[in-house]
Specification:
Blueprint lengths: L2 E4 L7 E2 L2 E2 L3 E4 L14 H11 L13 E4 L15 E6 L4 E3 L8
Parallel strand pairs: 1-6, 4-5
Antiparallel strand pairs: 2-3, 6-7
Length: about 100
Amino acid sequence: MKKILCQTANCEHNLKNTCLAGVITVGEKGKCLSKIKREGGVLAQAFADVEAAEEISPDRGYDCIVQCNSKCIYNNGNICSCDEIRVDDSVLSTKCRTRIQSRG
């Protein structure tokens, strides 16, 4: 996968809306299981984004493997086959918003 657009407000792997984890795991209901809350919370996230180099950009893309346990049309042998996904905060968790539930 070339791009994970991460719009979570508090994750150690997120920098300028780009996931830099390298490998993430998405659970059965699309929940990002790899999220690690940043020490210092949302304020620390904002400071990290401001201090980040200009080379880090969601438009650049970074190689990443998404291990997926969700019933999704992009799930191919528990690896996401989509070229890019969007991960975002919901009320109770952080979820893959690109997930399209398969009928199988």
